[in-house]
Specification:
The complex is a heterotrimer of chains A (about 325), B (about 325) and C (about 300). Chain A has about 325 residues and is of the alpha/beta class. Chain A has ten helices and twelve strands. Chain A has an eight-stranded mixed β-sheet with strand order 6-7-8-3-9-10-12-11, sandwiched between helices. The relative contact order of chain A is 0.14. Chain B has about 325 residues and is mostly helical.
């Protein structure tokens, strides 16, 4: 994919958290790009920085966290250079929206569902209360919510998990954003509801012609729904490519380990686990952060951080094993 | 359970508690003092007088009979007679109660109007200078003995600086308004006496401030901690992600949720206002039930002491009931649970 | 023989350490957090000063707190009497210093009585549940329906004026809070797995309550005690102020403030200094209590 065509281009994003125990270097130079009308899965273990990446895009990182470097180019401008006001007025909820893991606690318990969706609408569109209300009902209907006229008057705690997530999705899509960031949207839902919600997301983004950054730890979801995949480990994107590239022709040793750890139904025997444990981000390993656990580690890996090498068109790996295999354009 | 069931249950609970309150005051006034009459009349009193009074007051009857009598009298509004003022206690209390309510309400208004904004500022500027200043200020507020601060401020503002008037509900050369509601502020307005009204308010400034200060501190602390709690929640992040500006996030989303526990604290503070009123009224010569209580204690007027205590406990219970119901009403999770 | 005993004590100590490693780690972290909070440290300093002054009272002043000197009555602060003299010529500084002993005594005694009775009742209520819990909780409700000073006043009036009666009165007022706290804690501890484990091993109810549940409640109870100390001192002084606390000539701070009431305009020192002492004392307890509460709040520990 041509880099110039991308909708969102994150370059060398660094986000640190300044805590009592030390500086947690959560994101150490994240590179990521999403194209138009594309579903990108951002996958990795808990604590690898996927949520922090999502929050950083919208600049929702609270103290003690701080985005300290990099660029987030969206629609030709660097989001990190915008003022807080500009972010609120032009970007959040309007061009880029986000949905969260726990839908019921992501909605204010003291307001009705309808008033919260209307609020989102009235923030970015010049409509009066009644009109906003009507639009809330209509967008809820589009998410497949049964009986939207009734739901609109209810409070979040009265909804089931699946319904609440539909409400969140409605709220996020209400102003026709170009990018939807979905942070583990189905992790707290039942498997059957999960399938429905994922189907809904796929449906809606093609209808709304938006892109989605789907943050998840579940490889199964990624395989089923995403076009492209980015694999994260300890604050870096270590592999990026098409769904097929990642699942069939993966290159990075961590990706290999990750895929091997997924238990398969018909195979018996010991479960595979990657040796070692997730690194401490206050004192991370030098060079490539995966090297202490990597079966293919070389001396170089502990000294330098590997850059991204493009091994095929649109498929890049951050690993010194592929230093010589970089495809020349 | 739904709202109506909640209210009913809460009312029932209050009735049980009130019964217990009555029992406790009975125990205190009848069982504990070794000899209430002897304590009042003194050691020189002749035995026949003691016996006569004992019989008159029904103290020679068995305890459970006394108790039933006591409750019966209460239900009929008979709170006994004050040996100090020689009037039915209920009349004394009804005359003085509005003055205490006036003072407490004024204090509460001050406390809420200063305390809540202080707490919000503190939470939004956590760990920065305004937060530290406000926290220290609040700590002083809850550590100050109210009777001491009253005396000191009186000395400074009345005696030394002459900015504020002398203790009392209004200046001595003024006449009280004709009693309509019992509230001096309201009655003076009804009578059209604006001068008295203003004078009265001036006299109320210092005692209301002194009384309200610790509540102010307590409310500020509670608002701060509940705001901090709320600002940590997921829905605040979600609200920001919609594009809401920080101001709207704080005032429309955070505050609404943070106010719910704060309402409870306001109710609880009303109780400490009643306590503080006892001490403040004494210092500022305010004719409320607080100064009545201290007068009664010093005079060993047991009946008055117990009856006033009862009234105060009832008022406190009632305000707690209102607060509990308000809390349930404000939180949709309980109201529509 | 001596060496053998030493060795076994050391062995037991190291075994205890490994068994309770998690708890010790927790404790060390708590101390660390506490040290980082300057306000709590200030509180600790104030309280230590208070306790030290109370203990060392006779060494700190040469004047007898109850000795009168009517010739020098109402003398303003001077080099000899930094806090001045009161209406009976007594040195106020020494009275303030000795007053700290009284406040400390009242506070400790009240907490000892009310915390123990309250906690035990609360734990019993929480663990046994049913009608016993209902009754105990309703009784605490009844006591809590009175604002604390008011109830203390009523009880003091009935009992008569003396220091002992003040302690009893405030003790009766304070126990319900501990009972409620302990019951709440018991309810949550009760559900924890290890209680089931111990019960399945056949431990008696009494043993469960005393050896397992009570220790879990201890940290919160201690914080509550620290926090309530300030309130106890204020209530005791309030009683003293209206004339029903400690009996004269005991130099209780509330009584001293009341003494100075009539002279507040001109001879302001009689009431001011005892009040200041009280302010800093209560402030100290509140600061420390606050700090402790923040430290032990599980959410802030990360």
């Amino acid at each position: 994919m041509n880099k110039e065509n991308s909708l969102l281009d994150i370059r060398n994003l660094k986000t640190y958290f300044y805590t009592y125990k030390g500086v947690v270097k959560a994101l150490e130079g994240v590179n990521l790009r999403i194209g138009a009308n594309e579903l990108l899965g951002l996958v990795g273990e808990t604590g690898c920085g996927k949520t922090v990446t999502g929050l950083s895009i919208l600049r929702l990182i609270d103290s003690p966290g701080k985005i300290i470097g990099g660029e987030i180019v969206f629609g030709g401008e660097d989001l990190l250079k915008l003022s807080e006001n500009e972010m609120s007025e032009r970007i959040r909820g309007k061009k880029i929206s986000m949905i969260f893991q726990e839908p019921r606690s992501s909605l204010n318990p003291t307001y009705t569902v309808g008033s919260q969706i209307s609020e989102a609408i009235r923030l970015h569109q010049r409509v009066d209360k009644r009109e906003a209300f009507e639009r809330s009902i209509s967008i809820l209907r589009q998410t497949g919510m049964p009986d939207p006229e009734r739901i609109v008057k209810e409070y979040p705690h009265e909804l089931s998990g699946g319904m609440a997530q539909r409400a969140m999705i409605a709220m996020a899509l209400s102003c026709d954003p170009e990018l939807l960031i979905a942070d583990e949207p189905t992790s707290s839902l039942d498997v059957t509801i999960e399938a429905q919600i994922l189907e809904l997301i796929k449906d809606l983004i093609s209808k709304f012609r938006a892109s989605v950054l789907l943050i998840t730890h579940d490889l199964g979801i990624v395989a089923e729904t995403c076009d492209k995949v980015a694999v994260m480990y300890a604050g870096n994107v270590i592999e990026y490519g098409d769904v097929r590239d990642i699942f069939k022709r993966h290159k990075h040793p961590y990706t290999e380990g990750l895929l091997k750890s997924v238990p398969k139904l018909k195979v018996s025997g010991e479960l595979y686990t990657i040796e070692g444990t997730v690194p401490n981000l206050i004192t991370p390993p030098t060079g490539c952060r995966f090297h202490p656990r990597c079966p293919e580690a070389m001396k170089k890996c502990s000294e330098l951080k590997p850059p991204d090498f493009e091994v095929e068109s649109g498929h890049s790996v951050s690993c010194f094993l592929y230093l010589d295999q970089e495809k020349r354009e | 359970m739904n709202f109506r069931a909640f209210v009913l249950r809460r009312l029932l609970l209050m009735l049980i508690v009130l019964f217990g309150v009555v029992t406790i005051t009975f125990v205190i006034s009848h069982i504990i003092p070794a000899d209430p009459i002897g304590a009042i009349l003194g050691p020189q009193a002749p035995d026949e007088l003691i016996e006569k009074l004992r019989h008159e007051w029904g103290l020679d009857r068995p305890l459970h009979e006394q108790f039933i009598n006591y409750v019966w009298n209460l239900l009929h509004g008979d709170l006994g007679k004050s040996i100090r003022t020689n009037r039915p206690i209920i009349r004394d209390l009804m005359e003085r109660f509005p003055d205490t309510i006036e003072l407490s309400t004024a204090s509460m208004i001050i406390a809420v109007c200063v305390g809540i904004p202080l707490g919000i500022i503190s939470a939004c500027r956590k760990d920065k200078i305004p937060d530290h200043v406000s926290r220290v200020f609040s700590l002083f507020g809850i550590s100050l003995p109210v009777f001491w601060s009253g005396l000191i401020l009186l000395m400074i503002f009345y005696y030394r600086l002459n900015w504020l008037p002398s203790p009392g509900p209004y200046s001595t050369h003024l006449r009280p308004p004709p009693t309509v509601t019992g509230f001096i502020s309201i009655d003076s307005l009804i009578a059209g006496d604006v001068g008295l009204f203003i004078n009265h308010l001036q006299h109320m400034i210092l005692p209301a401030f002194v009384l309200g200060f610790s509540s102010m501190a307590s409310i500020a602390r509670m608002t701060r901690s509940s705001m901090l709690e709320v600002l940590r929640q997921d829905y605040i992040k979600a609200a920001r992600s919609k594009g809401l500006k920080e101001r709207a996030v704080v005032f429309n989303h955070a505050l609404r949720n943070a106010m719910i526990p704060t309402v409870t604290i306001i109710g609880l503070n009303y109780g400490s206002l009643l306590e503080g009123a006892v001490l403040t009224e004494t210092i500022f010569a305010w004719p409320g039930i607080g100064s009545y209580l201290t007068g009664a204690i010093l005079y060993l007027d047991f009946q008055a002491v117990m009856s006033t205590t009862l009234l105060i406990a009832f008022t406190y219970s009632l305000s707690n009931l209102i607060v509990d119901i308000l809390y349930a009403f404000l939180d949709p999770r309980i109201k529509y649970g | 023989m001596g060496v053998g005993k030493e060795k076994s004590i050391l062995k037991w100590l190291s075994r205890w350490k490994t068994e309770h490693e998690a708890m010790l780690e927790d404790f060390k972290y708590s101390l660390h957090l506490l040290r980082r909070s300057p306000l709590s440290m200030v509180g600790l300093i104030l309280i230590s000063a208070f306790v030290l002054i109370a203990i060392l009272a006779p060494l700190l002043t040469k004047y007898d707190p109850i000795e009168q000197d009517l010739q020098s009555r109402l003398q303003p602060p001077c080099w000899d009497n930094p806090f001045g003299r009161d209406q009976l010529g007594r040195d106020i500084l020494s009275r303030v210093i000795y007053g700290s002993r009284i406040s400390l005594r009242i506070g400790i005694t009240v907490i000892a009585i009310s915390a123990t009775t309250g906690t035990v009742l609360g734990v019993v209520a929480g663990y046994l549940g049913g009608i016993i819990e209902e009754i105990i909780m309703r009784i605490t409700d009844m006591f809590l329906a009175f604002p604390s000073l008011i109830l203390a006043m009523a009880i003091s009036a009935a009992l008569g004026r003396s220091l002992e009666n003040t302690v009893i009165a405030i003790g009766i007022v304070a126990w319900p809070t501990y009972a409620r706290l302990a019951r709440g804690l018991t309810l949550s501890v009760k559900e924890e797995q290890f209680i089931e484990a111990v019960r399945s091993l056949g431990a008696s109810r009494k043993r469960i309550i005393f050896s397992h549940i009570l220790p879990q409640c201890l940290p919160t109870i201690i914080i509550q005690a620290t926090l309530s100390m300030g309130g106890i001192i204020l209530t005791a002084a309030g009683l003293g102020f209206i004339g029903f606390g400690a009996e004269p000539p005991l130099p209780e701070w509330g009584v001293m403030i009341s003494d100075g009431r009539n002279f507040i305009m001109r001879e302001w020192w009689v009431s001011t200094f005892p009040g200041l002492a009280m302010l800093f004392n209560v402030l100290g307890f509140n600061l420390l209590g606050d700090g402790l509460r923040d430290v032990l709040d599980p959410r802030l520990r990360r």
